[in-house]
Amino acid sequence: MKKFAILIFVLLSIILIATGCNKNLLTNGVISEILGTDKLPNEELSVLYAFNLSVLENVIGDVDYVFVAYINSYLKTTYNEDFGDNFPTTYYEIEIIENIKGSLITNSKIELLKSGGISKKHTTFQIYSDDFLPKVHNYYIFCVYAQTNGNILASGTNSNIYLDNITNYKNSSQYLDVISAYQNQNATERERSKSKYDTN
User: 135 lies in which domain range?
Assistant: First the structure.
């Protein structure tokens, strides 16, 4: 009986410690609401790129797909323990409205990965320098890379471009700049992968 009581005490202690460690972690619902806002401070990670990402022609020439999409929801955040301090990747559920470069399925719910996200301790947003996290229930032009496993990843400057007027987005400066950059893209020679959402 005494051993049983000790065992119960140990188990309760473990539960209380685990609960105490997680008491400051946010729910997925809260994370979904605050992504892309200033509710938490940004912690920027400086990255050295092979070319200037502020030039859209460079970005669009290097990525595999460019498209207009709506973000339905936030799905989850994963952490890469081999890169930096558990650097996050944010998973969104999106619907593609229009393909600009490449051909991905449209009007279907698919996953999009974004480099950066809420930190493991839920105290900051960790992002690459000159980048920002997209907000749920908003429209963006995404410039993404196909991963070897078929996923699509938006990463770095100009990988997501906010569209503030979706009803007339084809006349917006953001859209017209992307179309112009696509038509004059600086294509890079590199090994490319194909998305599992590719229609070809």
Answer: 2-183
Contact 154, 113 (CB under 8 A): yes
Report whether 97 contacts 70 (CB < 8 A). Answer: yes
Residue carrying structure tokens 């496993």: 149
Residue 198 lies in a domain: no
Q: For the domain that residue 87 is a member of, what is the CATH number?
A: 2.40.50.120
CA nearest neighbour of 121 among 200, 10, 24, 36: 24
Domain membership of residue 74 (yes or no) is yes
Sign of the Cα torsion 171, 175, 178, 183 reads negative
Q: What is the DSSP letter of 5?
A: H
pTM: 0.86
CA-based nearest residue to 84, from 145, 43, 53, 51:
43
Average pLDDT over residues 158-174: 95
**What does the pLDDT look like over 72-94, one tens digit per residue?**
999 999 998 766 568 999 999 99
Specify the 3-state DSSP secondary structure of 126: strand
- DSSP letters, 14-31, are HHHHHHHHHTTPPPHHHH
Distances (CA, A) of 171 to 63, 97, 176: 23, 16, 7
